[in-house]
C-alpha cells in the first residue's frame, strides 16, 4: 500500500475516522499501551522487569511490578507522567501535531481540546518531545546552511539579546543539514562560528559525504573528512553545477512559515523544541497519519518535561 504524504486530501486518517478509532479513554489507553509494550510484553518502567500484574481496581495505578513492588501506568516514565490531561486528548494532540505541516499552536489545543491556555501550552511542548530524528547520520550529498529566527533586538530584554556571529544579532541562529531528497537535522546554536558549525556537521554527517554550503567563512577550514562544494550567495550565485543549498533552504522556508503563520513567536529559550518538531515532521512526511502518530507516541517514552523547568530562568 502506498503511504500518504502530509497535506494531501486523501490522508489516511480523517477527523471522523480518528474519533471512530479513539472514541473514549479506554481505546486511547489501549493504543498507547500497544505502542509502548508491543506484543503484550508489558515491562515495569521502574526496573524493566516483565514480572508485572494487573491491579483489579486500578488503584493507585493499573499495574504492579512483582520485582520492585512499584505501581505504574502507561504514562509512567514518559512526558505524560503526572499529567491530568485525558489520554484521549493526548492522542488527539498527536494527531493534530502530525498532520499540520506548519505546526499547531497552544491556542488551537486550548480551543479544540477544552483545556486552559497554560495546560494547552504545556501539552504542546510535551508532545514536541516525541519527535525523533529518524536515526543514522546523513550521507551522500548533504546540504548545510544556517538561518536566523526571532524578533527585533529593540523588543527584547537585555539578557535575551544574542551577540556575535553572522547575520542579525537579534535573532537566534539555527544550523541545519539535509540529504538531497532525504532527512533533515537541525539545531539551535549560540554562534555561527567555525567551532559550532564544525561540531554540528561532524555529529550529524557521515565522513566521506559531499557537503554543499554557501561561502560563509566558518565552513572553509574543517571539511577534511568531507568533499566540500560551495556557492557564493553574496554575489548572486545560487546554483553552481551540483552545488546548491536549495533543499535546506526549502526547509527553512517551512519553519519560518510556521513561525509567522502559526506561532507568531518562538522564544530562544524554547526554540530548540520547535526546530526538532519541524525536522521530525519532515523526516516522517512520507508516513501516513497513524504511522506518524505512532512515531510520536513511541518518542514520548523515557522523557520528562515539567512546567517549572520550562518556565525557570536558567540565566
Instruction: Summarize the helix and strand pattern as letters.
Output: HHEEEHHHEEEHEEHHHH
Largest sheet: 5 strands, mixed
Total domain count: 2
Strand segment count: 8
CATH topology description of the largest domain: Nucleotidyltransferase, domain 5
Radius of gyration from CA coordinates: 22 Å
Query: Spans with pLDDT under 50 lasting ≥5 residues?
Result: 1-7, 153-166, 233-240
Decide which structural class fits the backbone.
Answer: alpha/beta
How does CATH name the architecture of the largest domain?
2-Layer Sandwich
Count of DSSP-assigned helices? 10
CATH homology group of the largest domain: Ribonuclease H-like superfamily/Ribonuclease H
The spatial strand order of the largest sheet comes to 6-5-4-7-8
Q: Whole-Å distance between the termini?
A: 51 Å
InterPro entries: IS1016-like_transposase, Tnp_ISXO2-like, Transposase_Zn_ribbon
Protein name: IS1595 family transposase
Organism: Allosphingosinicella flava
Amino acid at each position: 500500500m502506498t503511504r500518504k504524504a502530509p497535506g494531501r486530501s486523501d490522508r489516511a486518517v480523517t477527523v471522523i475516522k480518528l474519533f471512530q478509532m479513539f472514541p473514549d479513554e479506554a481505546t486511547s489507553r489501549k493504543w498507547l499501551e500497544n505502542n509502548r509494550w508491543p506484543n503484550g510484553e508489558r515491562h515495569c518502567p521502574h526496573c524493566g522487569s516483565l514480572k508485572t500484574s494487573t491491579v483489579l481496581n486500578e488503584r493507585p495505578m493499573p499495574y504492579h511490578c512483582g520485582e520492585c513492588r512499584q505501581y505504574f501506568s502507561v504514562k509512567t516514565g514518559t512526558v505524560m507522567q503526572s499529567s491530568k490531561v485525558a489520554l484521549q486528548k493526548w492522542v488527539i494532540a498527536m494527531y493534530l501535531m502530525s498532520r499540520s505541516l506548519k505546526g499547531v499552536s497552544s491556542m488551537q489545543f486550548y480551543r479544540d481540546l477544552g483545556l486552559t491556555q497554560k495546560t494547552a501550552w504545556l501539552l504542546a511542548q510535551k508532545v514536541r518531545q516525541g519527535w525523533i530524528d529518524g536515526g543514522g547520520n546523513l550521507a551522500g550529498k548533504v546540504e548545510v546552511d544556517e538561518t536566523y529566527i526571532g524578533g527585533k533586538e529593540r523588543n527584547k530584554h537585555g539578557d535575551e539579546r544574542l551577540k556575535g556571529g553572522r547575520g542579525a544579532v537579534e535573532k537566534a541562529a539555527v544550523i541545519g543539514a539535509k540529504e538531497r531528497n532525504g532527512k533533515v537535522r537541525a539545531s539551535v546554536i549560540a554562534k555561527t562560528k567555525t567551532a559550532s558549525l564544525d561540531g554540528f556537521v561532524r555529529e550529524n554527517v557521515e565522513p566521506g559525504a559531499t557537503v554543499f554550503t554557501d561561502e560563509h567563512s566558518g565552513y572553509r577550514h574543517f571539511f577534511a573528512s568531507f568533499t566540500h562544494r560551495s556557492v557564493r550567495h553574496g554575489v548572486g550565485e545560487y546554483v553552481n553545477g551540483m552545488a546548491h543549498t536549495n533543499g535546506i533552504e526549502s526547509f527553512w522556508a517551512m519553519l519560518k512559515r510556521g513561525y509567522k503563520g502559526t506561532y507568531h513567536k518562538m522564544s530562544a529559550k524554547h526554540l530548540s523544541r520547535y526546530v526538532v518538531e519541524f525536522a521530525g515532521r519532515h523526516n516522517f512526511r512520507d508516513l501516513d497519519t497513524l504511522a506518524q502518530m505512532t512515531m510520536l507516541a513511541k518518542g514520548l517514552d523515557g522523557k520528562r518535561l515539567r512546567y517549572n523547568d520550562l518556565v525557570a530562568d536558567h540565566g
